[in-house]
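It is worth pausing here to work through a concrete case rather than discussing structure prediction in the abstract. The textbook approach is simple: state the sequence, then state the predicted structure, then interpret. We follow exactly that order.
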Amino acid sequence: MKQNEKEVTVRTAKELKQAVQNKEKVIIVEGELAKKLEPLEKLKKSKNQPDINSEMSTPVAAMAMASVTAVSTAVWIVLIIAVSLLVLVALYKNYDVEVSKGDTKMKFTRN
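Step two, the predicted structure:
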């Protein structure tokens, strides 16, 4: 995990979890992890926001997120398992997201 005063750059789920727990202001996610997190952009932009929380079961949370995006329940389940529901909910509720598709990078800014 690289860190400067304004932002933290992460490449692994473990580093992302630490950055979210530290309530970092700006989190830059790079590489494969950024690709995996791309469905969050669709979730954030959807008109119907699901009521999800970190205490839901994985299948219930995945179905709620799939119901408002064009992303399958299976993809959400894999993402929840890879990153953790707690981290996904924190990113969804507490951060704005920008995706830079050309270089596989995502920027999460705490709101």
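Step three, interpretation. DSSP finds six helices and five strands in the chain. The mean pLDDT is 90.
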